[in-house]
Amino acid sequence: VQLQAFGGGLVQARGSLRLSCVASGLRFSNYYMNWFRQAPGKEREFVAAVSRYGGTTNYADSVKGRFTISRDNAKNTVYLQMNRLKPEDTAIYYCAAETPGTSRSDYWGQGTLVTVSS
């Protein structure tokens, strides 16, 4: 199983980025897909989740209304559209695949760095 996240970079505050995560080696539609992030010196935190077919999403309060998670099962890809970025959004962003009903992410991507300048 492999999850490859990309799309990070340097962006100014109030700008936008779209992260993508491509999965291989698993039946993608069997998994919830999550995004987490870890800022320098901080613990990893949950950002967003999407159900198997995209019908249900969930967000951390800190990103609600600014970030949108979506998925394309035909492309084995999950996305995170990030708008109105803030310097405090600076972190390494990780995608993860979660077996429904377990509340545990079984597979993780390598992370992509997002840096938001003020």
What's the quick description here?
With 118 residues, the chain is mostly beta strands.
If you had to describe this structure to a student in words, what would you say it looks like?
The chain is mainly β and 118 residues long. It is built from no helices and eleven strands. Strand 7 and strand 8 form a beta hairpin. The mean pLDDT is 97.
Helix content: under 10%
- C-alpha end-to-end distance: 37 Å
Cα gyration radius (Å):
13 Å
Amount of beta strand: over 45%
Q: Which stretches are poorly predicted, pLDDT < 50 over at least 5 residues?
A: none
Global shape = globular
Mean pLDDT: 97
DSSP summary: helix tally: 0
What structural class is derived from the secondary structure elements?
Answer: mainly beta
Encode the helix/strand succession as letters.
EEEEEEEEEEE
Strand tally, please?
A: 11
The major pleated sheet works out as: 7 strands, mixed
Helix and strand topology:
Elements (H helix, E strand, L loop, with lengths): L1 E5 L2 E4 L4 E8 L7 E7 L6 E6 L6 E3 L7 E6 L4 E6 L8 E8 L6 E4 L3 E6 L1
Parallel strand pairs: 2-11
Antiparallel strand pairs: 1-3, 3-8, 4-5, 4-9, 5-6, 7-8, 9-10, 9-11
Key words describing this protein structure:
single chain, 118 residues, mainly beta, seven-stranded mixed sheet, four-stranded antiparallel sheet, 0% helix, globular
